[in-house]
Task: inverse folding
């Protein structure tokens, strides 16, 4: 993927800051390919780093458009954002909004192994709530659990302008 980010000074490369953005965002926008159209669906997520690779977990119903599309084409794109705060300026073009965001691409896999599904759901709940939950087999039987292994991603932060902090 091109890493030619405009406003490169806003790029976040510090891993601890990237992890704190992943902790905060809570909602991910999942981009899928539907023939010659794009399809984007908001979802809650969990994440973990596996040997330096970002892995995301999602869950939902076992049927529906996103699951059908993933089965046809597992290449996905994701975006998440947080720390949204509008600020004012003296003229219209100095108004703006703060943000922290992550965008990346990866491969989606619909998990079938019960232990993998339970692990994924514990990770998802930890990201969403900060708490540890354990899952029994029957609790994951009727949901689809999706694992996305990110092939690459970038992070970006726009802070408040100087003088407005
Ligand atoms: C903040 C947030 C968090 C969410 N978290 C989750 C989650 O963790 N897991 C999960 O499964 N779902 C979650 N949802 C719901 C999710 O966005 C989808 O509605 C749901 O997953 C069904 O997707 P689908 O592709 O199977 O759609 P289908 O049920 O197959 O629906 C098909 C059509 O319905 C319409 N549609 C579907 N979803 C939406 C929507 N959200 N808003 C408007 N129109 C829609 C679209 O036109 C779509 O083409 C969340 C929604 C929001 C807003």
Result:
């Amino acid at each position: 993927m091109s890493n030619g980010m405009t406003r490169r000074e806003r790029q976040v490369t510090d891993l601890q800051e990237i992890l704190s953005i992943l902790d905060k965002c809570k909602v991910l926008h999942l981009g899928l390919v539907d023939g010659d159209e794009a399809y984007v669906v908001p979802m809650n997520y969990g994440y973990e780093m596996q040997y330096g690779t970002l892995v995301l977990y999602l869950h939902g119903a076992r049927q529906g458009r996103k699951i059908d599309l993933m089965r046809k084409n597992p290449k996905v794109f994701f975006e998440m954002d947080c720390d949204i705060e509008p600020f004012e300026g003296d003229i219209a073009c100095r108004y703006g909004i703060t943000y922290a965001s992550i965008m990346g691409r990866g491969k989606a896999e619909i998990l079938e192994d019960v232990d993998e599904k339970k692990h994924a759901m514990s990770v998802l709940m930890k990201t969403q709530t900060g708490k540890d939950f354990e899952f029994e087999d029957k609790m994951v039987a009727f949901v689809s659990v999706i694992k996305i292994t990110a092939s690459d991603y970038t992070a970006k932060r726009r802070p408040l302008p100087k003088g407005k902090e």
Remarks:
- The CA atoms of residues 45 and 119 lie 13 Å apart.
- The chain has four helices and eight strands.
